[in-house]
Amino acid sequence: MKIKVSLIFSLALALALVGRASTPPPPKLMKFDASKPVLLVTAEYMTVDQLTDPKLMALLKKYDVMVAPCIRAGKMDAELDRLFDVYEANGLTLVFWPLLPREQGLYLNKQHAGDFLAYLDEIYAWSEKYHHPVQALIVDIEPPNYQKGTDATPEAEKESFFTGFKKVVKDMDRKQFNAAKPKFMAIQQKLHDHGTIAIVTALDLSVVDLMTGLEAAQDFQGGPTMAVDWDYVSFMHFGSNNYPLLHSVFKMNWDDCRYLTYRIGQVIYKKYGDKVAVSTGQTLPGEGHGAVYNTPAELAEDFSALRAAGIRHFGIYDLQGIWESKDPEAWFKAVREAPPKTPKKSWKAEHALNTFKGLSYVLEMFR
Fold this sequence. Notes:
By secondary structure, the chain is of the alpha/beta class. The protein has helices spanning 48-51, 54-62, 78-89, 113-130, 161-170, 174-193, 207-212, 216-221, 239-250, 254-272, 296-308, 319-323, 328-337, 347-365, and strands at residues 17-18, 31-32, 39-43, 65-72, 97-99, 136-139, 197-203, 232-236, 276-281, 313-317. The radius of gyration is 19 Å and the shape is globular. The chain starts with 16 loop residues before the first strand and ends with a helix. The model is unreliable at 1-26 (pLDDT under 50).
């Protein structure tokens, strides 16, 4: 099982960042107007040439879209400098989305906190060399169930849901989870020391920890996502990929699924307010070979449900899927104009949410 992140944003709630970080010591965090709705798209596999296509940049500018390119280890070079130069010259915002090498699991989790902390040193060394301040950075926390592949694509074979689930449960450990908390705090501190806004990702399943007070769902995700007071939290909630499982297990139709989306939005907005975002989609299969939306209208329905729950900031996984579609502009137009719309109450969705809460108590025993 591979639960993809979208990025979340992820969130970049980064955002409507105003001004630049001051020269240390100590640098100040970028200012961010959390009341201004943010739309951010991740770009996991796109090349610099693709990202700097003038037609694409014109669309990003027209719809006020921020981009979070995947920053891979070993790729901190002049080519990345070129990407930042072009976007800065065009008044477009880039948010760092760093991934570890595949042999280190790609994502931050309790097993690779030290590796991620060391990777930040490489990022800031690049930033100083090429004079590009790291305004905001996505701290992508995911389970250590990565797969083989290249920087251009994951391997073709898809792991079964239950095989992946068993692997992740096996890695759960309360002692290791608690030991990771100060390491995660050190990561945010290093970001703050360099004037960088910290945007953390959370799987949508982690919402049950907000309802139960437990930490099992976060441990399942890979680490103490909500144990640190991050600047912003971006929940990954991919309707296209969730539907097949929800339909199979709970017999939920699309209306039921959208009500579950609405309920999740309510819970996380109550906790975080305008400091929360939701990364949704998918438009690209990605690392987890996930199901995708085929039309802008499908994605816009998720935006409408989440807006009705109070969510203002959004991420989409992924820019490549939008750009390679027949009408890329239609996607940006649809999600920007999607009105708030409260779905009809679904008892199937409430049952699913309660089941996930119950599952968290069971997972707690495996820790």
